[in-house]
Write a structure and sequence with these properties.
six-stranded mixed sheet; globular
Amino acid sequence: MKKFVTLVLMVCCLPTLVFAQQGAHGRGGPRGARNAGGGMPAIGQVIGKVMESATNKGIGYATVGVLHAKDSSVVAGVLSGENGDFTIAQLPFGQFILRVNYLGYNPVYHSFSITPKNASQDLGNFKLSPSTSLLKTVNVTANKPAYSMSIDKKVFDVSKSLTSVGGDATDVLKEVPSVNVDIDGNVTLRNGSPTIFVDGKRTTLTLDQIPAESIAKIEVITNPSAKYDAEGMSGIINIVLKKNRKPGINGSLRAGGDTRGGFNGGGNLNIYQSPFNLTMSYFLNDRKGPSSGTTTRHNIFDDSWLDQHTTGKRDGLFQIGRIGLDYFLDNRNTLSVEGSLGGGNFNSSQVLNSNYLNSGKTADSSSIANTNSKFAFNFYSGDLGYKHNFKKDGHTLTADLNLRKSTNPANGSYQSQSYDNTGKPMAGAIRQKNNTNGSSTYFVGQLDYVNPLTENAKLEAGLKTSVRNSNSTYDVFDLKAGDYVPNDYLSSDYRFDEDIYAGYVQFSDQLNKFGYQLGLRAEQYSYSGAVPSQGLTFKPESDKLGLYPSVFLTYKFTDMDQVQVNYSRRVDRPNFWQRIPYTNFSDPLNLRRGNPDLKPEYTNSFELSYNKIIGQSNFMTTLYFRNTDNNITTYTEPYNNSKDTLISYAINAKTNNSYGAEFTLQTQLTNWWNITANLNLFQTNISANVKSQDFSNSKFSGFAKLNSDMKLPADFSLQLSGNYNAPVATPQGTMKNFGSIDVGVKKDLFKKKASLTLSLSDVLNTRERESDYTIPDVFTQHSVARRASRFLRLNFTYNFGKQNFQLFRRKSNKSQQQTQQSGQDLAPEGQQF
């Protein structure tokens, strides 16, 4: 019902908003160039808040209009935000009347003046009282959906997520349609690798280092325009962090734990007193992660078998602190500074039991291997941002600088003992230890310019520089005669430097119902790697200027019914671990190695989307096609012709063609229940050539997600999330199907100042990774890996501060009421906005 009322209000306000724009623009030029004050600049600004008188809660979507005091003609108008806040900018000098109106409530008037000495004002709180005549016919209730869709972007509101409370970004992404997260935290978007952004910028933070409570929303852009980085085969996932914009002092404290023995805690404090906005936050997360797995391998050439069973755990403690300051220099210039400091320690252990069987599947021998490691990381980062708003609406210039430094020390040990078929220890036991030291520096500088040339046409342009330097040293020592001696064969060091210099230009326009956007991005990419101890250097041949065009064509049948065709060219470059040349022997029978000769993969992406809004339902269907050259994928083969040891490394396949259809429905079934359903069906065709041997595979697959959010009586909320993934093709086999269900319930306490959230992850205990691999005439292998994914988590959150309290109010409530009464006397009878 509330959505219906909001829609009615917006329809009723549309003509007024149009006239308001005309009044602000004038007939002779753009907005701000001329006004009723005889050419004086339109630089004034007023802010305030619309509230319900009985509950002191903010009223969203209220109509706020500015009228000339002389003749009550409309100057400007806006709708209040969901929390009741409103801002009306670019007002000329003069005397005005503010009118606040909302369906079912009595209007309120307030007179004010804009002068050179008083150009920016806070008008305070406006409390609306119900109109008894209208309340008899209006009943407003609503449960805002967590997921919203538009033709070019999908947005997930994390504040509605219950199952991710107390978790990290991976827990949030599990709920987002179009996105998949496996048991190891690897993220795919439409079965491709996306680029992860934080607040619109690349980040070196891993997803498990971003607390869920610090996230405001997730933006999914499946086919980004030239404005965004070209990297990411299947698009961009932008994690938008929370940032306070409410006047006064407010914040929250939270703490929780789970049945695995982990705990979390933290809080944030926001102080907003014009012209400053200060935000501070701290998060601590201790997690426990038991794991298990099985592998069965059949060596075809000698008809032998291998059975492996692993058990392990990974415990970690992570903490991060942030502080940010926005300084509003004036109503056109804002300077922002933010700093982050964090770190953590992770301890992992694994026991690997291996049984070697002959063709009759009787035991020949066995082995037990124990691996222990301690990994630590520390980082700090700093951001400096500047934004300038020109006089014309939407005309902006922004500049951002970011620097991040991190260190990653680690150490570990490995022990292995083999036994004959009678259980007697055999000679050749292995005792090793290792030390790792690594560091990384990442710098980004970015400049963006936006200029609305006309009401519909817009020009955008920008420059960006990214510089990354990383190094790592891995030393292995063998125990011999009671002393640990260096093992030069297994030890390695590595360094790489990566520079990206980019620029883009983008133009868009709307011609009646037809809209278009044309963009071109250029990126100069430079990469070099080295193994200093061996005097080796690696520099790919593909260091050249790359051009990445994008085209978007949109036709609007109505505002509720539109179709779009788009195209973009993208690139996915190998990461540090895919290129690093040393071999990882932590699992002696399943080795991993980097490939320094790995080349970037290039994707041409096409989409045809149709979006239809019917009542309280939003439906979108998308047909897509991706053609990828030099597709980066994982290849596995016997190590040095061994019958029991495999090695895996990344290679460039020939091509990967993926096409499919995605269907997403968001609907509000009742005023307390809404659901989001997502179905993705796709066909994958992969071909590769390794060591003169061709491999190919193809498979029709898909995945489905369903999120259900319910607002229940007594301040309870209930969320159910489920997903299913069909088998997916790989160059050498298949990733098996899997699915899971999560449930969360929340109880608001103390008049919604606090809440208690209980969630159960993986209700049916079905979340796992199962796969089949085959090399013809060599081996077949079946593997299953699991982590402790079913657990209960309980979290408590307490919010403090009066979020509607404005420290910088310049007038008392009494004088405000007197002025409002004066405004009512000035307002003409029957004047409507």
